[in-house]
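S., here's the first fold you wanted:
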Amino acid sequence: MKFALVLLSLFPVFSFAEKRPNVLLICVDDLRPELGCYGWDYIHSPNIDRLAEGGVLFEKHYVQAPTCGASRYALLTGRYGPAGNDALMRRASAIGKGEEPSPSLPAWFRSHGYTTVSVGKVSHHPGGRGGADWDDEVIPEMPNSWDRHLLPAGAWQHPRGWMHGLAHGEIRENAGEMALFQAEEGDDSIYPDGVAIPEAVGQLKELAAGEKPFFLAVGILRPHLPFGAPKKYLDLYEGVELPAIANEEKPAGRTTWHGSGEFMKYHRWGKDPRKDAAFALEVRRHYAACVSYADAMVGRVMAALADSPAAENTIVVLWGDHGWHLGEHAIWGKHALFEESLRSPLIIDVPGGKEGEARKTVVESIDLYPTLCALANLKQPDELDGSSLVPLLTGSNKDRGGEAASYHHKARTLRTERYRLVLHSDGFVELYDHKVDPGETTNIAEENAGLVKELSEKLGA
């Protein structure tokens, strides 16, 4: 399934300063690869597009799970893991009982002399703590990983409020009474990301002025539900024609389709986008506004990096924790094993590396841990499940085939360059041929038993 690990002889292609490179990891929640740099001209995403112009964009990046906690577990441990949002807390609990799992990505860099800092939503809980309001200092979500893990909650009082909040500190108490979307007049600080990003910028400036290399992870909340962003970002889509929703019918056969429960629990003014085209369009405009708000947050961080002494010695990674359905397969949300839930943006900008290039190879989130180890010239832990993407970054092996494994509670899937196989826990099988059916609408498993067997064996391995 994987390709060989990169040899140190490849490193001269990157123009790092004498000291080890810094790492800036930007995590964006619920972000579809529906951005200008991915070929969508209606979306206003100039800052992410600019990042792509300076680095390598991965067109077929797949996460390990279509839910925040399990996906971030895979990213931050470099391993396949539990399917639920409590994955990292379960790992932390095991550490508390004396078990020694393989080190997390930031813990590994920390053990090699890096200062490690997270701001915002990097692990599942913003700020990386447990407790009733996710702010208990004695319950770290990722023990031994961060020198500092921060979440200024502002008017939202605590990380749980920040995570599900709307403008001016509104905290979700009952989702049915909280608006599904909102666009209030005001500056960026009236929504949660606007109070966290200044902290991220401050941390970046402090780290860049220090003597030690740093690993800074910045987690941006939007476009996570509820879709709230300053009105100026919604105004960008006034009168803009959005493309039609692809494959918007509910699948006729058995799939991982669900009733969009996370979405439907919010206050929707009695409307359902599956039955109301005008409302569906309104939802999509507000999602787009949140994407542009998130893009502006990326821009503020990148501007701070550009103005810092670390600008020429910092690897930048932009990663989306999973995709999101905006009506495809009659789903509004994630939590399915379709392409829309599992494909997300991945951009890597390495100083001295390729600029403005794209790779069509299938890659997965667990590949980032070994990639960053290789780029920083660190020996990687033995237990990692992914493989370095450096051959793709350098172009030395940009045409090789790839595969990605993903999972949810009752099924798992393998995405190859051509096919998607979905194995349900009771043995039911879905198979889609992306060469003729990129929308994953026709299950061809029954007439392709040999191919199902071959791909099932790969997934099992």
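And the second, which I think is the more interesting of the pair:
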Amino acid sequence: MNWNQLLSDKRFGMEEYHDRKHDRTDFQRDYDRLIFSAPFRRLQNKTQVFPLPGNIFVHNRLTHSLEVSCVGRSMGNNVARGLMNKYPEQSASFFEIGSIVAAACLAHDMGNPPFGHSGERAISSYFMEGNGKNLEMKVRDEGGRWEDFIHFEGNANAIRLLTNQFIGRRKGGFAMTYSTLASIVKYPYSSELSGTKGKFGYFQSEEETYNQIANELGIHTLQENPSRYVRYPLVYLVEAADDICYQIMDIEDAFKLRLLTCEETIGLLLNFFDNEKLPHIKRIMDMVDDVNEKIAYLRSSIIGLLVDECSRVFLENEEELLQGTFNTTLIKQVNPKAKEAYARCSETAFRKIYKAKEVLDIELAGYRIFGYLIDSLTEAVMNQERAYSKLLLKRIPEQYNINATTTYGKIQCVLDYISGMTDVYALDLYRKITGMSLPAV
């Protein structure tokens, strides 16, 4: 792969209207287009990890995405400077890398359903273990890819949301640049290759879309598996920004929710600094008495450290990234001290945060709510002549194709609608159609 081809400001779905005469670059316009979009705005009411309490403000999908975007831009700018110094004669738009990564970071969670990752698991479980399993043979007999549903993946759904021409919408969906779209796809292969982790990058309905993106940017396939693409290089920066933010911010949120003590939290965060930097970090931290300020200072220092480390790893392995032979994440290649501290945070998060009662409660609720909504809406879409179905289908916005000709398409219509919901909307709809709450008359 080569940077001249990889950094393309051509817009998906609007290739024939390609025009560079703007005050803002096309990548900056990607960022602005996402910020002002309704799906991005709805992230403010989607769970990140913790349920959204009223008295303590923890991260939701919106604040998380904004923070990831800031971190991604910093790394992108670092990498851009490094590449411009390395290739002073190249005409590639290296200076735009920060804008590309920032926009991709904004969009990386836009396909996630409500209730955090439990929403993804609830959808998958419905088709793997629940009533949805009865539709498997019908989907397969019609040529549909059943694995798209039993391994439902928010990353693949983001590409669908950004590129699909929903009813009444323009060609190309959001009409993002090819480079921004490619930067979102962490797993550039179909659900048939998802393996035990169930991760993949695009649904059957968007497979040709990604093929088009890959061909435009010169992303090649693996020699040993031509059905699987190598990663687009800037994906590594988006992934690293996400890794940095969710891990460090989850620790800070856990402290605010009293799942971790002050001593535990500060101890975990100080582990990132070597003996040379530690005295300076402690001295600055001790200048303030407010414990929240102490932790905020440590968090910002760690993010700065990891941004520099991940940028270094990217630049040192740039040739492998272009060849498609870099087979790990940037965060796993940071210096040993930071790597060990990050691992301790991960272990603590798994043990004390992700298994916390509050997190488990939202997962249990997600399963019940999602199971019922998918069951009811799928039943209605598949049996539209029934009286109750006709009433329920009026709740589905017109942009979603309830009249799709295949079972795969009908299921996807339901998942498009449900995955776009906020936590509050999904709960409200569940309560109304079960009769648990009635609108005021």
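Why I say that: DSSP finds 21 helices and two strands in the chain. Residues 61-86 form the longest helix (26 residues).

Talk tomorrow,
H.
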